[in-house]
User: Which sequence fits this backbone?
C-alpha cells in the first residue's frame, strides 16, 4: 500500500474546516496540519517561558501570546492573485508581538518579532525544518526551538541577507539570551526542571 499525497485545499476551505473543528489546525502551502496535544512537560516549559516573557514585557510595547493564537503570514502581494499559495496560518507555542496595529480579534497578521516552538516527538521535523524555513521566509526576526527530550534550546536570528543564522545552541545548563528582546534571558536549569 503506497503513501497518499496530502490533499491541497483553499484558504476558504481551511477556514470552514476550522469553524467545525476543536483541533488546532495549521495551514501551510494549501495543506492542513493538526498540531498534537501538548504533553505535561511541554505545558510546564511553555508556562515558564510565558511567565518570564510576560514579566519582562510588562510596561513595554511588546506582548506575549501563547497558543492557541493564530499567526497569519502573508507576502506583500497577497491581495492580488491566488492567496492559497501565499497565506499561511500557524499556531506557535509562544509569539512576541510588538506591532499592535496588525492584531485582530482572534489572530495576528504578519511576522511576530519572536516565535518559540516547543518540540513534541510527533512534530519535530515540522518545527525543525518546515517552520524554520517558513519563519525565515516571512521575516520572523528570532526563532527559538526548545527540545524537552534533549533539554536543548536553539536560537536563530535573521542576518542582513534575511537568512537565519544560528545564534546559540545550549544543552541543559547556561542562560539563553534573546537578541531581539534586549535584556531577556532564560536559565536552562530553571526552564527544564
Assistant:
Amino acid at each position: 500500500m503506497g503513501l497518499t499525497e496530502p490533499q491541497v485545499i483553499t484558504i476558504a476551505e481551511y477556514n470552514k474546516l476550522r469553524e467545525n473543528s476543536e483541533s488546532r489546525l495549521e495551514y501551510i502551502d494549501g495543506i492542513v496540519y493538526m498540531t498534537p496535544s501538548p504533553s505535561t512537560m511541554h505545558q510546564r516549559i511553555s508556562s515558564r517561558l510565558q511567565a518570564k516573557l510576560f514579566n519582562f514585557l510588562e510596561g513595554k510595547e511588546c506582548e506575549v501570546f501563547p497558543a492557541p493564537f493564530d499567526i497569519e503570514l502573508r507576502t506583500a502581494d497577497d491581495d492580488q492573485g491566488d492567496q492559497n499559495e501565499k497565506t499561511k496560518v500557524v499556531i506557535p507555542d509562544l509569539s512576541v508581538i510588538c506591532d499592535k496595529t496588525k492584531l485582530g480579534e482572534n489572530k495576528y497578521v504578519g511576522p511576530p518579532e519572536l516565535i518559540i516552538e516547543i518540540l513534541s516527538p510527533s512534530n519535530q521535523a515540522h518545527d525543525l525544518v518546515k517552520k524554520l524555513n517558513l519563519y525565515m521566509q516571512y521575516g520572523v526576526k528570532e526563532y527559538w526551538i526548545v527540545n524537552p527530550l534533549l533539554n536543548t534550546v536553539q536560537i536563530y536570528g535573521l542576518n542582513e541577507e534575511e537568512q537565519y543564522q544560528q545564534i546559540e545552541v545550549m544543552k541543559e545548563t547556561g542562560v539563553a539570551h534573546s537578541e531581539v528582546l534586549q535584556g531577556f534571558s532564560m536559565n536552562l536549569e530553571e526552564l527544564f526542571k
Residues 40-57 form the longest helix (18 residues). The radius of gyration is 17 Å.
